[in-house]
């Protein structure tokens, strides 16, 4: 349960200071558990999204992408089980009137204990959750004297279920409007479009449908910065397979998805698999890929064997036949599904936490330090910064010439203010992998100084080679 809250707080502050993440509606004191992405955050998020999308749709011949609407027919959520099952055990403190998700309350307390004691508490909780033993969960909270963070008391209500879906009205007149939901996941938009995609794309099983989109959950205690939010983005892929082959495909995607994470250069020690103790109502196997955040190991992606629950249920509720005719086996059947579901915001946080480093550069009695974001070049919000050494002698014109040559291929940033050292530090702080300085020698031999973020080494290269150097690194 090792955590580094100081580092986590430093990362949150850095995200605000350098335009990655802002509190939503901050001028009005913010909205709890809702965040906006700033100029650097929006670009980093887009780069992560694009890398996932390309790896799913462009690199797999049998996976295509869709973009389904956020609003769906309300029966969708009855069929999916969300109306009846999308609930979490909650508990209220009678003194503060503050409501907590039971697992979050117990997990928060476990983090304050030793590893052995914390793990034992989590194991007890998991067993009680598996049996839906609400009385046992309340007793566990009381026995461990787990207090409300506001009132400081252990005066708790009974544990009860609370549905996490946001509802709203569809229609102009409230009396005549029908209640619909903001989608709590993107998966159902894929399932209801299964036949549309399969027929129009002439898809043969096995095949997948991918989607990136917003989802909404009324988390009672949303915490830990952007790790758990009420409005978030998911990157999901549903892979449709022949019944009976789910074990093999589940193993395949479990391994394939971890490979994707490691392709970004992250140390394998930072990741682990966590098998679900309690399976969702639709699953026959489920595993989380967890990452070692400064707040401990937390889920980033889930791989689920969903059986034929979703398509079968939509067939039943819609009264429409949702089946696939397999020409190889000469059979009609409802396909089984393997799901890969990754939170884009969590992947963003993972990328930021993994990249953040504070470095002491002091030497010869002279103090110096820097904060650097070691993003993979393909994900960095700015990939090349271009600096004229001075604002005169034709150097800005040469720098703009290089900028014009490169900006259609990758993200560039131009700056001529302050000393070069200060400019380097600012680019280190947003994770720019390459900085190029145009100086008076450039006018003589058309060479520039390229400076590498990670090593801080500098070398002289021909100006017309800069674009190639950066592209090679991005496409590595």
UniProtKB/TrEMBL annotation:
Top class in the EC scheme: ligase
Chain sites annotated for binding ATP: 217-219, 227-232, 299-300, 343-346
Reactions this protein catalyses: tRNA(Gly) + glycine + ATP = glycyl-tRNA(Gly) + AMP + diphosphate
Superkingdom per UniProt: Bacteria
Recorded GO CC terms: cytoplasm; extracellular exosome; microvesicle
GO biological process terms held by the UniProt record: diadenosine tetraphosphate biosynthetic process; glycyl-tRNA aminoacylation
Residues bound to substrate: 101, 185, 232-236, 339-343
Domain Aminoacyl-transfer RNA synthetases class-II family profile: 165-376
Key word ATP-binding present: yes
Subunit and interaction comment: Homodimer.
HAMAP family from the UniProt entry: Gly_tRNA_synth_B
Name the UniProt record assigns to this protein: Glycine--tRNA ligase
Native organism: Chitinophaga ginsengisoli
């Amino acid at each position: 349960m090792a955590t580094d809250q100081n580092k986590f707080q430093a990362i949150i502050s850095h995200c605000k200071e350098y335009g990655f993440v802002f509190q939503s509606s901050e001028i009005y004191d913010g909205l709890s558990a809702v965040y906006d992405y700033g100029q650097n955050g929006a670009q980093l998020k887009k780069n992560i999204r694009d890398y996932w999308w390309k790896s799913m749709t462009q690199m797999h011949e049998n996976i295509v992408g869709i973009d389904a609407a956020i609003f769906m027919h309300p029966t969708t959520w009855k069929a999916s089980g969300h109306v009846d099952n999308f609930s979490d055990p909650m508990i209220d403190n009678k003194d503060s009137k503050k409501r907590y998700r039971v697992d979050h309350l117990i997990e928060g307390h476990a983090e304050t204990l030793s590893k052995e004691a914390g793990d034992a508490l989590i194991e007890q909780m998991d067993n009680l959750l598996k049996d839906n033993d609400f009385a046992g969960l309340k007793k566990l909270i009381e026995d461990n004297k787990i207090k409300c963070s506001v009132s400081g008391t252990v005066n708790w209500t009974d544990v009860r279920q609370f549905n996490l879906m946001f509802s709203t009205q569809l229609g102009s007149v409230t009396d005549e409007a029908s209640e619909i939901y903001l989608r709590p996941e993107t998966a159902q938009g894929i399932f209801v479009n299964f036949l549309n995609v399969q027929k129009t794309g002439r898809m043969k099983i096995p095949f997948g449908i991918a989607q990136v989109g917003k989802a909404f959950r009324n988390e009672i205690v949303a915490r830990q910065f952007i790790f758990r939010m009420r409005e978030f983005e998911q990157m999901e892929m549903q892979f449709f397979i022949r019944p009976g082959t789910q074990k093999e495909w589940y193993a395949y995607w479990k391994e394939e998805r971890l490979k994707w994470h490691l392709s970004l250069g992250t140390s394998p020690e930072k990741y682990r698999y966590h098998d679900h103790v309690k399976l969702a109502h639709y699953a026959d196997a489920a595993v989380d890929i967890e990452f070692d955040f400064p707040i401990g190991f937390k889920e980033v992606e889930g791989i689920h064997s969903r059986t034929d629950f979703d398509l079968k249920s939509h067939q039943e509720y819609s009264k429409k036949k949702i089946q696939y005719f397999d020409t190889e086996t000469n059979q009609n059947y409802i396909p089984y599904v393997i799901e890969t579901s990754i939170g884009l915001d969590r992947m963003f946080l993972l990328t930021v936490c993994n990249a953040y480093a504070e470095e002491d550069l002091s030497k010869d009695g002279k103090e110096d330090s820097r904060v650097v974001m070691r993003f993979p070049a393909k994900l960095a919000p700015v990939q090349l910064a271009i600096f004229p050494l001075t604002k005169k002698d034709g150097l800005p014109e040469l720098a703009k010439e290089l900028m014009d040559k490169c900006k259609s291929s990758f993200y560039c940033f131009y700056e001529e203010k302050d000393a070069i050292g200060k400019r380097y530090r600012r680019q280190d702080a947003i994770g720019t992998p390459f900085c190029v300085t145009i100086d008076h020698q450039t006018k003589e031999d058309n060479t520039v100084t390229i400076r590498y973020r990670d090593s801080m080494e500098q070398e002289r290269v021909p100006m017309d080679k800069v674009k190639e150097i950066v592209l090679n690194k991005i496409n590595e």
